[in-house]
Amino acid sequence: MLTTVEISIKTREFPSIHHNVRTMNLTKASDFLLLLLLASTSLSQPTYNRSTYVYKNKVYHIETFFKTTFYSAFMYCNKLGMNLLMITAEDEFDKITDFIKSKVKYEKDLMFWTAGAAVEPKEFHWMYTGLPVELNTRWLQGEPNNLSGSEYCLQLWMNKPSVFVLNDQSCTTKSYFVCQTTN
Ligand SMILES: [Ca+2]
Prior knowledge:
By secondary structure, the protein is an alpha+beta fold.
């Protein structure tokens, strides 16, 4: 005897599950268990995870699982088919830092590498385009300072709770980083 199982699922969020449920006529308990497994597998794979942000025509990946140097962060983003972060507008700075603030807890020295590098001390350009970093109001007061003559890489720094600023930092310092889609 056939048993039809009706399960209410938001089709907009999980269209594949809905499709499978609607087309299955369950004949025995093993089929029902298979259905539950299918549902749990699909539910555990959302479209974007907590570290992904989309704004305008870019997708951003916020890496807070491990800290690394500017160089390794640069290569890691390339491995993902992405670039290290380039912020080219004031609204982009606000949006990406607001997203990070909504996802991470403040801690001392909470920093994120960007793709900014100094062609001369305190003169920052984006590595991928060669264009100058034009976020002059976003530097922490007194930065860039090229401390000890060794700060040639650009980072976002949450220097106090809910406040992000720019800072030049030694490229071998280990910190989190942000990748973005290439465009
Ligand atoms: Ca500095």
